[in-house]
């Protein structure tokens, strides 16, 4: 299976189960306040066994091909945890997960599970927007004595800000599907109009101001 084919198949799946919605004429408002023509809730993939297995196999293939030295899988809390578990099971590797902040009681763990020094870790995320939380998780692995090889995600909005942030942090990023593949798929399936494509593409380049 080629990478392009996988991007398209996952885009089709996310659209078909309603994990991604496109509404260029009536934008959604994100928690950050950004108005967006797209809303993505990859948590819905958990409820669709064939979709979640396609995603897990895609991640496992990426790890085998690009990071064969990986000896541990990490999930980001909370949405990356189930996908990390399925990938770890497929690869027969140990797993940990990284909290968004340290637990407020007990041992005040930021990382749950057993991370020995020197472990080579691939971090699994569900969605990349600006990339901040994913980079923070990779850095937490490094600070705890592991080596974060990369962040792998189901989907990316392909924001230039995110690409710059990952490059600055020195953290490789790979995704199974992305905004470009999604727009192409949505157009092919007549979920959007041809005249919507220019606006959707322009929003990706100016997400903070396009609908302002």
Can you put this structure into words, describing what you see?
- By secondary structure, the chain is an alpha/beta fold.
- It has helices at 3-16, 49-66, 80-91, 132-143, 160-169, 179-188, 196-205, and strands spanning 20-22, 28-29, 35-36, 38-40, 72-76, 95-98, 111-112, 120-128, 147-156, 173-178.
- The strands form 3 sheets. It has a 6-stranded mixed beta sheet with strand order 7-6-5-8-9-10, sandwiched between helices. A two-stranded antiparallel sheet has the order 1-4. A two-stranded antiparallel ribbon has the order 2-3.
- α4 (132-143) links the parallel β8 (120-128) and β9 (147-156).
- The longest helix has 18 residues, at 49-66.
- The termini are far apart.
- The model has no long low-confidence stretch (mean pLDDT 94).
Spell out the key features of this protein.
globular; 10 strands; alpha/beta; 22% strand; 212 residues; six-stranded mixed sheet
The shape, in one word, is globular
Percent of sequence in beta strands = 15-25%
Structural class, judged by helices and strands? alpha/beta
**How much helicity do the residues have?**
40-55%
Question: Rg, please?
Answer: 17 Å
Quick overview of this protein structure:
By secondary structure, the chain is an alpha/beta fold.
Task: Give the helices and strands, then pairings.
Layout: H1 3-16, E1 20-22, E2 28-29, E3 35-36, E4 38-40, H2 49-66, E5 72-76, H3 80-91, E6 95-98, E7 111-112, E8 120-128, H4 132-143, E9 147-156, H5 160-169, E10 173-178, H6 179-188, H7 196-205
Parallel strand pairs: 5-6, 5-8, 8-9, 9-10
Antiparallel strand pairs: 1-4, 2-3, 6-7
């Amino acid at each position: 299976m080629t990478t392009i084919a996988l991007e398209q198949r996952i885009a089709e799946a996310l659209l078909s189960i309603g994990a991604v919605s496109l509404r260029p004429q009536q934008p959604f408002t994100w928690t950050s306040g950004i108005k967006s023509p797209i809303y993505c809730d990859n948590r819905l993939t958990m409820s669709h066994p064939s979709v979640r297995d396609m995603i897990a196999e895609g991640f496992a293939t990426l790890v085998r091909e690009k990071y064969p030295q990986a000896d541990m899988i990490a999930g980001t809390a909370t949405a990356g945890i189930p996908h990390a578990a399925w990938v770890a099971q497929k690869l027969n590797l140990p797993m940990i997960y990284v909290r968004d902040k340290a637990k407020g009681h007990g041992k005040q763990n930021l990382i749950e599970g057993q991370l020995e020094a020197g472990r080579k870790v691939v971090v699994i995320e569900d969605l990349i927007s600006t990339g901040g939380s994913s980079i923070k998780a990779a850095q937490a692995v490094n600070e705890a004595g592991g080596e974060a090889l990369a962040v792998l995600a189901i989907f990316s909005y392909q924001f230039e800000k995110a690409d710059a942030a990952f490059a600055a942090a020195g953290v490789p990023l790979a995704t199974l599907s992305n905004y470009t593949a999604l727009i192409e798929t949505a157009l092919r399936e007549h979920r959007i109009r041809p005249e919507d494509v220019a606006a959707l593409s322009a929003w990706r380049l100016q997400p903070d101001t396009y609908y302002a």
